[in-house]
Design a protein that fits this description.
Blueprint (H helix, E strand, L loop, with lengths): L15 E4 L11 E5 L6 E4 L10 E9 L5 E8 L2 H15 L13 H12 L5 H19 L9 H13 L4 H20 L26 H11 L5 H8 L5 H5 L6 E2 L4 E4 L2 E4 L20 E5 L2 E4 L8 E4 L2 H13 L19 H18 L7 E3 L2 E5 L5 H12 L4 H8 L16 H13 L5
Antiparallel strand pairs: 1-4, 2-3, 4-5, 6-7, 7-11, 8-10, 9-10, 12-13
Helix pairs in contact: 2-3, 3-4, 3-5, 4-5, 6-10, 7-9
């Protein structure tokens, strides 16, 4: 019987088996066939023929090339049955293992795609987004076509150099270097022969951080101006208590015990990304063992990423008084948020930042200046102090007050000293004593 020239269409994903006919094997040349039913253009077919020695090909698609195109896997055999068997074995090797098989041909791009699919279930959303950005913007464009087995230290430096040429700061380069090292270490653990010497390339040195702390006189003036506003307690939480922005915006009234004069910091306000960008019906990208409670839209209350961030802080008289006053005037929040948006919903950090900048601008106007900017070498025209720099101010004031370092890290949440499980038995005396010293420097007398 003539050898078939067109493979039968099977179920999608099962692959296809067909003869690789060619005139080199004694097959007739391709000719024009009947017009295509949709386009009307003539098709190209090979006439039926006998006794050719063309091999059989098993083909299926899985994964993508370094250019982002579908990757086609092929095997060859002398007969149709052998080609189908080899194709099934190859599919099991590639697909059933969860990604590209560990062989000498796997490229950085191939493995990066597989790795991102793996860590989406383990990395926190913000960390995963950062990893995706590093992979797709810098790692793949620079060395995506390189095989894992062929990588050299120069390839790591190539990625860093590309970022340097683009004007990226050392902190961004270090972050991408960390992602690349994680990616390559995971490849080795998965059986890929990544040269060990590549993993020894050091990260770019980190420049002196641009963040600083507010001058004491500015912090005091800002609190004086804030005292004229209903939500003055928001800025006391930042400057005196050193509470992070996400922790402040995620703080609920139920976490404040006015009878015991303490507050519990156990959650943060975070926006979670959608599985499909901008598609609200696609659900949220939530990794395994990630505790998140949806409030509205993409805004969720999430648990801190480390146990160290769970902590209890004492309420000093000035702060407690400001909170009680704010509770009477605050927008009604269905979620019980202490510092919500004007409509009672979650407060966008961008709006919170703007209010912080407006506070600085008001101090500047009272000083007779149009603007009051911090002179940063990276910002020739100056910039506002960021809300996170309020935590630097708290730390500096605590250090200047000669507070024990163990008490400082307990206040700022950098190391665990207090367990929320021991809420009713926690001793906050040393913390209150330390914060009173900060309140005194900030002229926040009871």
């Amino acid at each position: 019987m003539p050898k078939p020239t067109v493979a039968k269409r099977g179920v999608y994903g099962d692959g296809s088996v067909y003869p690789e006919c060619d005139i080199r094997y004694g097959c007739p040349p391709v000719e024009d066939g009947p017009p295509h039913p949709r386009t009307g253009k003539p098709t190209r077919v090979r006439p039926p023929h006998r006794n050719c020695k063309a091999p059989w090909v098993g083909s299926f698609t899985h994964g993508f090339t370094e250019r982002g195109n579908p990757r086609r896997h092929k095997v060859k055999a002398a007969t149709e049955s052998k080609a189908r068997a080899r194709m099934r074995a190859r599919m099991a090797q590639v697909i059933d293992s969860g990604g590209a098989a560990a062989n000498g041909k796997t490229t950085v791009k191939q493995w990066a795609d597989d790795w991102l699919e793996i860590v989406v279930q383990t990395l926190r959303p913000q960390s995963y987004t950062s990893a995706c950005s590093s992979v797709r913007k810098w790692i793949v464009p620079a060395i995506g076509q390189k095989r894992l087995t062929d990588l050299m230290p120069a390839d790591v430096r190539k990625v860093m150099n590309k970022m340097r040429e683009a004007g990226l700061k050392p902190s961004s380069r270090r972050r991408t270097h960390s992602v690349l090292m994680q990616l390559l270490k995971a490849a080795r653990a998965d059986g890929h022969a990544v040269p060990a010497i590549v993993l020894e390339v050091p990260a770019p040195p980190l420049n002196k951080p641009a963040r600083t702390d507010l001058p004491l006189d500015l912090a005091v003036e800002m609190l004086v101006v804030a005292a004229e506003q209903p939500n003055a307690s928001r800025w006391v939480a930042a400057l005196m208590q050193g509470i992070r922005q996400g922790e402040s915006l995620g703080l609920c009234w139920s976490e404040i015990d006015f009878d015991r004069h303490i507050l519990v910091i156990s959650q943060q306000l975070k926006p979670l990304p959608y599985n499909v960008r901008f598609d609200r019906d696609s659900g949220f990208r939530v990794p395994d063992n990630y505790d998140a409670k949806q409030l509205e839209g993409r805004w969720h209350l999430v648990r801190p990423k480390t146990e160290e961030s769970y902590r209890i802080q004492p309420l000093l008289p000035w702060f407690e008084k400001a909170l009680l006053k704010w509770r009477e005037e605050a927008p009604d929040s269905p979620h019980g948020l202490v510092w919500p948006a004007a409509d009672g919903g979650p407060r966008d950090p961008k709006d919170d930042d703007q209010a912080w900048y407006d506070l600085q601008d008001e101090v500047g106007r009272r000083r007779g200046k149009d603007v009051l900017y911090y002179e940063d070498p990276d910002f020739p025209e100056g910039r506002h102090y960021t809300i996170h720099e309020a935590r630097h101010t708290t730390a500096t004031l605590l250090l200047e007050a000669e507070v024990d370092p163990a008490v400082i890290i307990a206040i700022l949440g950098h190391a665990t000293m207090l367990s929320t499980k021991a809420y009713l038995h926690v001793k906050t005396g040393p913390l209150a004593k330390a914060l009173k010293k900060v309140a005194k420097r900030l002229e926040l007398a009871a």
